[in-house]
Automatic annotation (TrEMBL):
Name of this protein: MBL fold metallo-hydrolase RNA specificity domain-containing protein
Domain of life: Bacteria
Annotated Beta-Casp domain residues: 260-385
Domain Metallo-beta-lactamase positions: 15-246
Protein species of origin: Lacihabitans lacunae
Entry keywords, A to Z: Hydrolase
CDD domains linked to this entry: TTHA0252-CPSF-like_MBL-fold
Length: 472
């Protein structure tokens, strides 16, 4: 049995891991897109979109719906994969939304390419490789098979998989694979993205049973969450300053799937329990609205606090003065809304999406506040805003002075911090765990986490490089 790390190796995005069993049965765990700007998908491979032969993959296991874990699945089918994708039911529905959204973006990009190069077929065939469309998404999704949490599912003779709640995102899972190897059953666990305890809406990450091999993320391997206040306390303070004292606009870049639902839920709780006057809230993302419906559908999978709040109020995300914006025209009009308001818009990293327009129109406004609530890659505008000391930004080829108030909080970060990661790892016996592989983190975070794990007595902690294979 062997394992090869094709993505998220000493970097954060593009998760792809192949587990090859002794009978040459191959399982791909996650099939994500690269989002950090460090490298686009490699289309120079003799196999097409991947550094491996997609037609030889027998099964895909998907930890959760985020594009850096799911975004290349349609291309996997285009390159010859004919098997099934196993995931939880919420992951299937959220992946449906996110992959179709990606297909729409791809269609626009193809049109731009065709327009720029006057339909040069030779050039287009190179530059549009990997840009799947709606048809390819539909074909891929027809092969998704939903699996319940904590259900031991047999996928082949002497081969089982179990999905455990991971927090992080609705439907997100840790995955444990049990397979026969050299005459004995062995367990290999894949953490996916590890959530944090007491996170809005989501359940705490569930500890895993003892395994032989553990592959785990390390995004926050060198840092801890800095906000100690509750989300309600922080939001109340920020809203009062931005929208009451200054009578201005509060702009919140937020991912449409996950972060927006947490924001709406917390605003609902704030208005319900803290006697805060409901200020107009504009949710500027059709994808966010569709995702919110999925969260409502699967409210039985949310945490106890959220379910109790729903029982008391009969709603999770709907409250007075909440408006969903559908059209681009309505979106642009809100950027100059005359009354104090809150605008929640994607993308969360300020890397494309409608939020760029809102920031462009408000970055020079001293009465505007921009609140960053999540992670942003170094190549994004969000990263510059998170730094807090930027004086000028270039948006849509315009050099703009930063006069708006910049704020950041991390109470909505869906990743567990260093303490959460350590707790997750320490649920495993150091004597029984044969290898621990770190993925999905930048090199500094990963190295720091590796050193701590080694000091605590974990043997054989590895930081796989891209395309590196290990015998298990």
């Amino acid at each position: 049995m062997r394992i090869t790390f094709y993505g998220a190796a000493q970097k954060v995005t593009g998760s792809k891991i192949v587990l090859e069993l002794e009978d040459e049965y191959k399982i791909l765990i996650d099939c994500g897109s690269v989002l950090d700007g460090s490298k686009t998908e490699d289309h120079s491979s003799p196999y097409g979109n991947f550094p491996f032969d997609a037609s030889l993959i027998n099964l895909v296991l998907l930890t959760h719906a985020h594009i850096d874990h799911s975004g290349q699945i349609p291309n996997l089918y285009l390159d010859g994969f004919e098997g099934q994708v196993l995931c939880t039911s919420p992951t299937l529905e959220l992946a449906d939304l996110l992959l179709h959204d990606s297909a729409s973006l791809n269609a626009r990009q193809i049109k731009r390419i065709e327009k720029s190069y006057k339909r040069s077929k030779k050039w287009k065939s190179i530059e549009t490789q990997g840009l799947y469309l709606r048809k390819q998404v539909d074909e891929a999704l027809s092969n998704f098979v939903p699996i319940s949490f904590n259900h031991r599912f047999k996928f082949k003779e002497n081969g089982y998989v179990t999905f455990y709640p991971a927090g992080h995102l609705l439907g997100a899972a840790h995955i444990v694979v049990e397979v026969m190897d050299k005459g004995e059953m062995k367990k290999i666990a894949f953490s996916g993205d590890i959530g944090r305890k007491n996170f809005p809406l989501l359940v705490d990450p569930e500890p895993l049973p003892q395994v032989d091999y553990l592959v785990m993320e390390s995004t926050y391997g060198n840092r801890k969450h800095y906000n100690t206040e509750t989300p309600e306390e922080l939001l109340k303070e920020i809203i009062e300053e931005a929208c009451v004292n200054k009578s201005g606009r509060l702009i919140v870049p937020a991912f449409s799937v996950g972060r927006t639902q947490c924001m709406l839920y917390m605003l609902n709780r704030l208005y319900e329990n803290y006697n805060v006057k409901p200020i107009k809230v504009f949710t500027d993302s059709p994808l966010a609205r569709a995702s919110t419906k999925v969260y409502e559908k699967y409210k039985s999978l949310l945490n106890k606090e959220a379910k109790e709040f729903y029982e008391e109020t009969d709603t999770l995300f709907d409250f007075e003065n909440l408006y969903y914006l559908e059209s681009d025209l309505a979106s642009k009009a809100v950027s100059n809304h005359s009354e104090p308001c809150i605008i929640i818009s994607s993308s969360g990293m300020v890397k494309g999406g409608r939020v760029e327009h809102h920031i462009e129109k408000n970055i020079e406004n001293t009465y505007a506040t921009i609140l960053m609530i999540g992670y942003a890659t170094e190549d994004s505008l969000g990263s510059k805003l998170l730094s807090g000391d930027v004086k000028e930004l270039k948006i849509n080829n315009k050099n703009l002075q930063v006069r708006a108030n910049l704020k950041k909080i991390d109470v909505f970060s869906g990743h567990g911090d260093l303490d959460d990661l350590l707790n997750f790892a320490e649920n495993q016996s150091k004597q029984k765990l044969k290898n621990l592989f770190l993925v999905h983190g930048d090199k500094d975070a990963m190295l720091n986490f590796k050193n701590i794990l080694t000091e605590k007595g974990f043997p054989n902690v590895e930081m796989p490089k891209e395309n590196q294979t290990f015998e298990l």
